[in-house]
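**Sequence with structure:**
===
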Amino acid sequence: MTRTALVERKTRETDVRVELTLEGTGATNISTGVGMYDHLLTSFGVHGLFDLDVATVGDLHIDEHHSVEDTAIALGEAFDVALGDRAGITRFASTMLPMDESIATVAIDLGGRAYTVLGIPFIAPSIGTLGTQMIPHALEAFAASARMTLHVSATGRNDHHIAESVFKALARCMRSACEVDPRRQGIPSTKGVL
């Protein structure tokens, strides 16, 4: 089984195209115009073993906000589409992932309900051209459009390491939770629907 999605999101502010293959090899081609965001999404694809192609053209002459947000929305929608009715998936996952002095803990539920709890203590206002306040915003947008619950906590002294550990941990969680459990028959819920 190969689960894929193609999502296009066009607004007056951005033009986003996301192609996703859940059963991938980690092949990525990311271009959002925001270098650090490209780096984080590349890490996400590589460590989740998702094939991920992201092309975003946005109003960067204003700032990175719309490009980052709309890319996150489209990426979440791509997961939602690729997962279909979510029958047979593992659904839950958690990961603790270190990167040098930083460590991130991520727990997710692909149960169809959007909720986000974040504790990410950034120090500086930006990492390159990516404002650090945009990272929690992107995670919230991603979780909402993917219809998932997302809990993230992280510590560290280097903002680059903190951000990267979060995205790598999220990737590992998404990989685990999206995987088909061979013992699971149907929807992973006592309700019978997600």
